[in-house]
Input
Amino acid sequence: AQTVTQSQPEMSVQEAETVTLSCTYDTSENNYYLFWYKQPPSRQMILVIRQEAYKQQNATENRFSVNFQKAAKSFSLKISDSQLGDTAMYFCAFILYNQGGKLIFGQGTELSVKP
Amino acid sequence: DSGVTQTPKHLITATGQRVTLRCSPRSGDLSVYWYQQSLDQGLQFLIQYYNGEERAKGNILERFSAQQFPDLHSELNLSSLELGDSALYFCASSDGPVGQGAGEQFFGPGTRLTVL
Output
């Protein structure tokens, strides 16, 4: 069975500093996509960044970047220059390439950015 | 705004009742997905429809059913409701099944269901 584990239930960071959120996953498949979603207090699910498993280059989106280690099945999210608006629950998730759209989510990491 | 709409935003009902949640996908998206977010189970995939046909099924209870209509909107029907069904139900859409598109799912704002 495929699983996603986020080992940090809560984290905090000072505004303008850098924080890294951890995620590991387990699958025997080789083709999949990985995602980080953000859920602010409004409860809206917002895609932060995505990574195709066949790409070795780590994805980046402005202040957000990932460290994708396929062999270790690790997919961490780094947020640089943290802003108050980054305060949210962050979910790591993946989809197997050949199983439709079944997103499998981790339990989430609640990030607080402090002024 | 993701372009995915869900109605109603909030729903309060009693145990044993039946409710219908509605979702309209982004314009042009053929796939619709339903997820349940609860405190004890986290975010769980329920079911996916692609262009009117069931594509993938997750941990969806037999009391729950869904369908996608010719205009591509979808409905999730929950019956014989129990206290444990209280949750936030999300609909998401994408432009195709994984492997034929970006794999990115755009989420609606969710329907908050409270069963009393």
